[in-house]
Amino acid sequence: MAAELHVELVAADRSVWSGEATLVVARTTSGDIGVMPGHQPLLGVLESGPVTIRTSEGGTVIAAVHGGFISFADDKLSLLAEIAELADEIDVERAERALELAKSDADAAAQRRADVRLRAVAVR
Known about the structure:
This protein is α+β, with helices and mostly antiparallel strands and about 120 residues long. It has two helices and seven strands. Helix 1 runs antiparallel to helix 2.
């Protein structure tokens, strides 16, 4: 069993994060899943939510992910998201305004996106 896994977090428009990790936690349609080196191969559908990546250097990377797929085999993990952004990139005030606007417009999808962004920031 390898001591680390290679992770690629990719959004539709860009590569968000790439590197070595010891653990990745993501939300799928079947529930939260933690992937460590040596995990059984998997393919799943990502739900909107924060993704936590524990890097090999001991750091933590948090990203807000909005839908997509997760794939793991041979200690290579791919997170292919419709939309993804690192928690450090999220403007909290803008996300809070977007959440309030979505609530007033009764826009459930926009409300869910803003909520995920704020949860990702809260986790970091």
